[in-house]
Amino acid sequence: MNEQNCFHCGNDVVMADEIVFDEKSFCCTGCKTVYEIFSLNDLTCYYDFENAPGATPQDIKGKYDFLDNESIVSKLLEFQEDKTYIVSLYIPHVHCSSCIWILENLHKLQKGITTSQVNFHEKKVRVTYSPNDTNLKEIVLLLSSIGYEPYISLENYDAKKEAVDRSLHYKIGVAFFCFGNIMLLSFPEYFEVGEFWIEQYKGFFRWLIFGLSLPAFFYSAWGYYVSAWKSIKSKMLNIDIPIALGIVVMFIRSTVDIAFNYGQGFFDSMCGLIFFMLLGKLFQQKTYNFLSFERDYKSYFPIAVTKILANGTEEAIQVYDVDKGDRLLIRNQELIPVDGILMSESTLIDYSFVTGEAEPIEKKSGDKLFAGGKQLGKVIEMEVLHSVSQSYLTQLWSNDVFQKRVDQKYKTITDTLSRYFTPALLILAFVSFGYWIFIDTATAFNVFTAILIVACPCALALTAPFTLGNVLRIIGYKKLYLKNATVIEQLAKVDTVVFDKTGTITTNKKTSITYEGAALTDAELLLLKNTLRGSNHPLSRRLYDYIPNQKKVNTTCFEEIIGKGIFAQIDGYAVKIGSSQFLQHMSENTHKKTKVHIEINSVYKGSYVFNNQYREGLEQLFENLSKNYNLVVLSGDNDGEQKILEKMLPKNTTLVFNQKPEQKLAFIENLQKQGKNVLMIGDGLNDAGALAQSNVGISISENVNVFSPACDGILDASQFSKIGFFLKYSKNAMRTIMMSFGLSLLYNVVGLSFAVTGNLSPIVAAIIMPLSTVTIISFVTVMSNLFAKKKV
Amino acid sequence: MSVIYLLISISIVVAAVFLYIFIRAVRSGQFDDDYTPSVRMLFDDELKKNPNKSEKLN
User: Most buried among A461, A543, A599, A696, by the most CB within 10 A?
Assistant: First the structure.
């Protein structure tokens, strides 16, 4: 074990703050407390499964008081009866086997919990408890205290348990049952062992096979008939038409064959075909249960807020119950759920998620607060102007342009191909029929049906699902989670990449600070650090952390002028820190950058500049992408960083600033009108419209579990520099599909040559069909894995 | 030789039973989460180790 890392959470231990307990080092008291809880309850096994699996518990004082409210709790519960309550909680931190273990042993930590069960993929824990011994609030507080804070948002309110669609599994089961039995029953006739017995029992075997094929034909394959019928009606000619045609013709011909004793029919091939194609569907149906691509403001909003009653008492109420004129209490780090007016003296609101502005905005008493901002100051009070449904953010979201358009249906590559394939197939079938009808009517019908059977594009239809399904999985491991397989096809067609600035090419986590002006001596740094100690302004806090440790000296006079700066006196020195207005020092366009100016004893020293920090590998990524793509940076922020960006990014990058959400959307729309295929990469609510409008919208997220606007894919922020790889890989995936199409057409040609000459026997069909399927599946799997290993 | 009718009916019935079991398993949600149970089954043994371990610590 590395001594430098916290035993509980694995973070680096800062020597000064190190806490040694039980011969183990911890980074903070929070982590130590969790360890203590576990060791007291004999649960230290937690640390055996995984190295440092924990998370530091956050301060949640008062955050879950709303769980005292019975009516809110009952909305969250999944099941409620006298002595048993069941609740499902979403816990973003669930990530390893230790997590599963500790969460399933909750009953040892809290009396009243009967069982708890984890669903790892959904990152949910389902707790059954008895309301007499404990309550939901206690459980949530317990989870938070051991570092597994659940995420409860407005989305959970009235969440109905969605019915799981398992019909595909049933269909596959039935198809496999039919396929397997029919295959076994068909063997005797293939090999024609002992003519006598075959002759005697032929009828029995054949009608049994017929009976067994019925469930597969009517139940398992039903989806294909429906889809084929729909596509004929909409004149789209998708791949399901030849598939459905093949299946139906196979069934009718085989029935006729056995009814008139012509032969044994193709029932085995038919069921095999249905089974393999359903399997392809299942493979493509990879979903990321723990992610949601259709999120709206609800998952971002809290479920309850604290209302201050007329008599001064506080009460937690549901967000939907907030009315105009109510007084609300908003704590630090809480979200403002409705528009309102600030009643407290002042505060700072972080609107970066809504508008893209990097710096928090200062609000004073009487200022209007918009929903969606995060409160960064001390506890504030506000008066409500609009209820939730009428607030700016909610209105913005319900705006039609912000909804992902459903009518934007893309034609998949398979469907494009089948536009040519289907007519060609029908023409071939009729031409051969026309040719044979003059020679022999019976053979003509034989050939006609044989062509439709053998050309049934099983391998063709399987190519795309298996390739894309596999690619989806591989890039999922690399932490780009796509909504579905069609996104990969879209990604391959992209020629323009649009980036948002704040939160996308910059990180929200750290800003680098640089100093401009006359160099400061150590003594002056000491003065600065001690002056900053008293201030709670976010910029002061950051600057305080930035300046190296100094001796502690008491200030003789300290004054903070809100929105301007601080003034302090130490040892006879007068220190002024703040905005240029405050110091009455007007340098060049000061408001463009975030600067903190310094003045000591009325002498202007210089300023600290807060730069947005760009993500690692940004320059390299743009450099690589600029060769093949048009690049755009579309920012909602001011153009303060234009110069830096121009220097950093390739010359042909377009930089656009001061874009409102609607303007971003219009910008993308305009690009599309010029015939561009646009990939939008953004992060916040301000990008939601643009993400929906673009051909592919990928949202980038520091924590993929918590929140991202509706999009086609979610990219883990740590993988930002790999965007180039993903784009290239999607292109290679499409190339794999094309190669595989060639291969499967080759099989079709071989099969057709049997069919056209009238030589297609059931056994040939029974060999060609699975053989082609297996080759195609192994080919695309090997190819897509090979391409994944290739470096960009 | 009519025994073949009997044998084949038995084989079909056996297969049908398996199909029924499969459908029941799907319906009960066994295929919804294919990861957690595989981890969970490894835990029971670890729990027994626990008492000895805490003794050592103290």
Answer: A696
